[in-house]
C-alpha cells in the first residue's frame, strides 16, 4: 500500500507494528560527528527512475536527474524499498529505513551504512521513516510503527531506542533536532484531522505548540524553523513560534513561499529543498530563486522520502 504525504507526513501504511530494537555495537560519536564546519555536498534523494531493475537508491542529483548511486537497495541482499534516509553530520554514514510492500524480508528495519567501508549495521526491525540525525552525531530520531510514534536512539550506547513521550492525542511525524540537541521539533495530526508543529525536550518535558501546519525543519544555526503552513507551502518561524515573513512570501493571508513539499535545509543554512509529486525543488533561505532541480520526486514507494544534502568538510 502506498503512503500519502501531507502536512505532517504519514497518513497510512501497511507493514506491521512497532520496531524491535536489536542490541548492536555502539558507535563513538567521533565516527559520525563533524570535526568542524561543513559545506553543501551533492543534493541526494531516493531514486527509482532509470536505474537497473528499478532498484531504489540513495543517489546524487546530476544535470539530467538522479545519478551516481551512493547506496543501492539491492534485492540480492533483501532490500526492496526504502522509506527514507539521513546523513551523519560528517557525511560518512547513512541512516536508512528499509521496508517491503508485499515481500517479507529479514533486511527490513533501521540500518547504518558506512560509505567508505560498506559496513551495514541493523539497529532495529520494523517500519521506520523520517529519520533525523542529531548535530553531534550521537543520536537518531525517527517515526516508527503503525501508530507513528517517535523514538530516539543513542548510537553511542548498546541500548534500545527510547520512546519519546510527546503526550499528543494524534499521530506524530517529522522529528527534527535543534542545533544544540536539546529539543526536537515535530508535527502532530490531532483527532480532528488538523496538523500542528511543536517542540519538546528530549526527555519528553516542556512541550510547546508553535503553529498550525506540519513537516518542520530546524535550520542548522538553530534560529529558524521552516514548515508547511496552513495553505500547503513553506513558512518560517522562530523556535519561540514568532512568524518570520520574507520579501519573497506571497501576499494575502497565506504569505508562503516555495512549493507544496516538506522542507529540508542545506548544511550551510542558505537553501531549502522540497520534494513533490512533480519533482524536487530548491529555493533560497528567504524563498527566492525557486527552481526545479530534477523531475525525480524522491518520495519513494512509501511516499516518505525527503531530499538531503550530503555534508562535506569545509576546506
3D structure, described in words:
- With 315 residues, the protein is mostly beta strands.
- It has a single domain (38-313), classed as Neuraminidase, CATH 2.120.10.30.
- Helices cover 0% and strands 44% of the residues.
- The chain is built from no helices and 25 strands.
- The protein has strands at residues 20-21, 38-47, 57-62, 65-72, 81-87, 93-99, 109-114, 120-125, 128-133, 139-144, 149-154, 162-163, 171-177, 183-189, 195-201, 208-212, 214-218, 225-228, 234-237, 243-244, 263-265, 271-276, 279-284, 291-294, 308-313.
- It has a 5-stranded antiparallel beta sheet, with no helix packed on it. A 4-stranded antiparallel beta sheet has the order 4-3-2-25, with no helix packed on it. The protein has a 4-stranded antiparallel beta sheet with strand order 9-10-11-12, with no helix packed on it.
- The termini are far apart.
- The model is unreliable at 1-7 and 9-22 (pLDDT under 50).
What's the short version?
The chain is mainly β. The protein has one domain: Neuraminidase (6 Propeller), CATH 2.120.10. Helices cover 0% and strands 44% of the residues.
